[in-house]
Amino acid sequence: MGRSYSLDLRSRVVAFVEAGHSRRAAARHFGVSESFAITLLRRVARSGSPMPARQGRAPGYGRLALYARFLVAAVEKEPDITMPELGAVLLQVHGVMADPAVLSRFLCRRGFTYKKSPDGGGARSVRHPRRPRHLDRATPAEDAR
Q1: Which residue from 47, 32, 43 is spatially nearest to 13, judged by alpha carbons?
Q2: d(CA 36, CA 24)
């Protein structure tokens, strides 16, 4: 994904056009594409702001968002389920194919981690917030006791 032009450049292009120059002249003057200048001024006319639009997909609207409850319930029911097995269950129940890596990232975003056990197996568990280190240290008053 490309990066948006800075708000400073956007404001200068808008000011240049509002000073009486054409959009194409503004593009040549600032070294940007004509389509950028045209689109920018269209955005300013519509919304009143030269701020860039949000890029990428909105959070929470991925392909697996519709099946979030099902996937979380399946992992909570069987914590040591592997991602290929979870993908097979998702395909069997809902008819949706999902790569194991996609399922793993989905569960990590939901707070699950993969814990290895000494016997070579593993289980997913919900991540608990870490306790800040400064709370683990004894206070000077406790050291004096």
Answers
A1: 32
A2: 10
Distance of CA 42 to the CA centre of its chain: 28
> Percentage of the chain surpassing pLDDT 90?
58
The reported pLDDT for the residue numbered 63 is 84
Q: 62 in helix, strand or coil?
A: coil
124, 112 contact by CB (below 8 A): yes
Residue 134 tokens read as: 């400064």
- CA 47 vs. chain centroid, Å, equals 25
Positive or negative, the CA dihedral 37, 39, 42, 46 is: negative
Residue pLDDT, tens place only, 12-68: 999 999 999 999 999 999 999 999 999 999 999 999 999 998 887 777 678 898 999
Q: Which of 11, 21, 23, 20 is nearest to 48 (CA)?
A: 11
CA distance 39 to 23: 9
Instruction: Provide the phi-psi class of 60: left if phi over 0, else alpha when psi is between -120 and 50, else beta.
Output: left
Residue 113: what are its φ and ψ, rounded to 5°? -125, 160
Confidence of residue 91 (pLDDT cuts 50, 70, 90): very high
